[in-house]
Amino acid sequence: MKPAELFEEIVRVAPSFATVRRAHIEDYGELLAHVLMGDLLRFVQSHFSGELREGAAAPTQVEMQAIFDVLDQGLDAHETTENAIAVSFVEGIEEEEYFNDLERFFGPLMREELERQRSWRPPPWPEGGAGGGAAR
Fold it and tell me: Where are the alpha helices (DSSP H) in 14-119?
């Protein structure tokens, strides 16, 4: 599933997201997966905050679960789709105000991606420091 197909499926399960997607296309002239993924995160948070995105009705409880089910499927899809979800939806989600509310909707692949990100550590510096060579 490529990004455009993922967002089409999200519109199918949460029709009010069509308003957000349409505004995105009007603003950018094309679908920018990472940017629209950030819009999707704000859209699902509107379920708790009541802050509407582009005038779109906040997703219902049933739509919320359906959106997260689609995202979970997207994490086992086209590489571009997986990257957009991992980088622009999952990464940093723990700092979001409604993370504790959102986490209950996570499927197994999203939980796995969140855990992968939590356990990530940068590789050690090469011997000799950042430049790789010995200090002079």
Answer: 17-28, 33-49, 61-74, 79-85, 99-103, 108-119
